[in-house]
Amino acid sequence: MFKRAIVRKPGKSMIDGLTTAELGLPDYELALVQHADYVNALKECGLDVLELDADEEYPDSTFVEDVALLTSKCAIITNPGAPSRRGETAAMKKVLQDYYANIEKVQAPGTVEAGDIMMVGSHFYIGLSERTNQSGADQVIAFLEKYGLSGSVVTLKEVLHLKTGLAYLENNNLVACGEFLTKEEFQKFNILEIAEDESYAANSIWVNDTVLLPKGFPKARKVIEEAGYSIREVDVSEFQKLDGGLSCLSLRF
Q1: Which residues are listed for substrate binding in this entry (predicted)?
Q2: What is the DSSP letter of 19?
Q3: Which DSSP state fits 82?
Q4: What is d(CA 244, CA 170) in angstroms, rounded to the nearest whole number?
Q5: Per-residue pLDDT, 158
Q6: Coil, strand, or helix at residue 49?
Q7: Which residue range is the domain that position 212 belongs to?
Q8: Number of CB atoms found within 10 A of residue 242's CB
Q9: 86 is in an annotated binding site
Q10: Is 123 known to be catalytic?
Q11: Residue 209 assigned ligand-binding role
């Protein structure tokens, strides 16, 4: 069960954020409304939410998940693969010092964005992507093992981040789409298949027995509801325009 979450308000500079989505520029005012609803959804799930001020210097900084991995034993500050995001880590480390005695830091030439890391109990699957390389993954695994946890790597071919196409919903249930449906390492899970035309909904998050789901994906909702979950939909259309999803917008711990 999670107790807390850290989020950061989007800044006006978000219109200059990284994207491959080709969905147009985000509407900043609408993004603020959507972000506020996202925060409300986390609170409805029982979380104490720390909302950080917008950081206009970093257009993508609302996607706080990428700059840190929070575990039960330690926090790991990443080294984002996107050079424009590396300056975000210093501020996050200062924030996390209030919550963690053990903080580690990934060093160059290693790169890691925590959107590539999926927690399943005490094990962490790490996607090798354009943003996360082998050196970065090896450092994360070494840190995890230092604290009695474990990690393994997963190769990606089609998506930006591992959690673009995967979400662990606890109870051995794994939301998956695309290339992840047939990967050997995930066959031990009960796979909840998301249709390709609703692949964005694969980036859902489990928060204390409620699944937060992007708004507007009825087939995905049906699949997850039939697995026995309560669902809270959140409209994140403006963040989708920046390749961001529900998991990207918070650090939950």
Answers
A1: 18, 60, 65-66, 85, 131, 242
A2: -
A3: S
A4: 22
A5: 85
A6: strand
A7: 4-252
A8: 25
A9: no
A10: no
A11: no
CATH number, domain containing residue 144: 3.75.10.10
Report how many domains make up the chain.
1
Q: Which of 35, 74, 161, 177 is catalytic?
A: 161
Side chain identity at residue 228, one-letter code? G
Whether the full predicted model's pTM is greater than 0.85, yes or no, is yes
Q: How many residues does the chain have?
A: 253
Nearest alpha carbon to residue 27 among 10, 13, 39, 15 = 15
CA distances from 61 to 35, 65, 212, 250 (A): 13, 9, 21, 11
pLDDT higher than 90, residue 22: no
The catalytic residue among 45, 74, 177, 248 is 248
Q: Is 66 annotated for ligand binding?
A: yes
CA distance 123 to 120: 5
Closest CA to 76 of 17, 116, 19: 116
29 CB contacts (<8 Å, ≥6 apart)? none
In one-letter notation, the amino acid at residue 222 is K
The answer on whether 25 is annotated among ligand-binding residues is: no
Q: How far is CA 199 from CA 27, 174, 185, 223, in A?
A: 22, 14, 20, 13
Is 242 annotated to bind ligand?
Answer: yes
Phi, psi of 113 (to 5 degrees): -120, 130
Assess whether 45 carries a catalytic annotation: no
214-235 per-position pLDDT tens digit: 999 999 999 999 999 999 999 9
Percentage with pLDDT > 70 across the chain: 100
